[in-house]
Specification:
six-stranded mixed sheet; 205 residues; alpha/beta
């Protein structure tokens, strides 16, 4: 498994390219902008998926361009974030009305010899998901290094965020944490040092 990270878009979104090296099958996670740079990084790869951790504009800005360049690639998002209440915050339905597929809790997508599993982790938005592949979590704006996503946007919910953080904290092992913004981390580091994750793991209801 090979992972490339690109910082794209107006507010520095982490876009990830996940590749099964044996088959060269690839998935793009959260192409928030900078389509030319992403396209250059994808040269020679068999792009199978465009995967979105949620529907905010800073994570979807280059989706239409990539979908046009790779018509064989399936675009996936949780349905609750495809039809967001505020089109300026959730623009994908107006930018790409056809060809979008919906995933949800437990969806498993094959990528060559890899499997991407979907965990529904609402809180930052109703349709936020975390993608698990091997020992790596693509967390979007749910879990950051030392922090978590804000919950004051439409569809955000602090209680749901704490439940989602607790769920991630309860996963087995020291998984790599690749967030939607800022630097990468590990789950064990976040269990020890992240105040929001520590609070979530203490509060059980």
């Amino acid at each position: 498994m090979k992972i490339q990270s690109l910082c794209v878009g107006p507010i520095g979104t982490n876009c990830y390219i996940l590749e099964d090296e044996a088959s060269r099958a690839a998935a793009v996670v959260d192409p928030g902008g900078g389509a030319p740079d992403i396209l250059a990084a994808l040269r020679g790869l068999d792009v199978r998926y465009i995967l979105l951790t949620h529907g905010h504009y800073d994570h979807t800005g280059a989706v239409a361009a990539l979908a046009g360049a790779f018509p064989q690639a399936a675009v996936y998002i949780h349905e609750r974030d495809f039809r967001g209440a505020d089109p300026s915050l959730f623009p994908l339905e107006t930018e790409l009305s056809e060809g979008v597929r919906f995933y949800d809790e437990g969806t498993r997508l094959p990528l060559g010899g890899l499997t991407v599993e979907v965990l529904h982790t609402p809180g930052h938005s109703e349709g936020s998901v975390t993608l698990l592949c091997g020992s790596t979590l693509f967390c979007g704006d749910t879990l950051f290094a030392g922090s978590c996503g804000r919950t004051d946007f439409p569809g955000g919910d602090t209680r749901k965020m704490l439940a989602s953080l607790r769920r991630l904290g309860d996963l087995k092992g020291d998984l790599a944490v690749l967030p939607g913004h800022m630097e990468a981390s590990t789950l064990e580091r976040e269990r020890r040092t992240n105040p929001y994750l520590r609070q979530a793991m203490k509060e059980r209801w």
